[in-house]
User: Fold this.
Amino acid sequence: MLIVLISPQILSLRALQIQILKVTKSVQGEAIPFIVFHLDIKYFMHSAYHFYILTNKYNTVLYTGVTSDIYNRVLEHKDKVHPGFTAKYNVYKLVYFEGFEDVNKAIAREKQIKAGSRQKKLNLINYMNPNWEDLWEKEFGNVEGVTE
Assistant:
């Protein structure tokens, strides 16, 4: 069973159902039953654990991770606090995330997504965030001193 959480911007339930069926087929290989909940993005920002996908300015590099503090973890990526992949490739833009109450479920979701193809990751992002907006910026706004 897939649980789908939608934002207030979704206007047509029928269009949503069609999109969900397309996404579940592309992500899972076959259509699966689903339940729709209408929630605001802020709800997910305040979950205990998060699986997330970041990209760079040009949306060409993808990075997945799990954290218990999405606000500060994304800030660390933006400020290049830790040397490594995200710092080297300027990966800082939060384009997708899911909230979980159980860290093991967040880790399992990351492993599931990492095991999939790049196209499946793109489909997931395009479905939930078609304009590839920085969801961190959208939620928390620009922080002084953070550079691109």
The longest strand covers residues 93-100. The two ends are 39 Å apart (CA to CA).
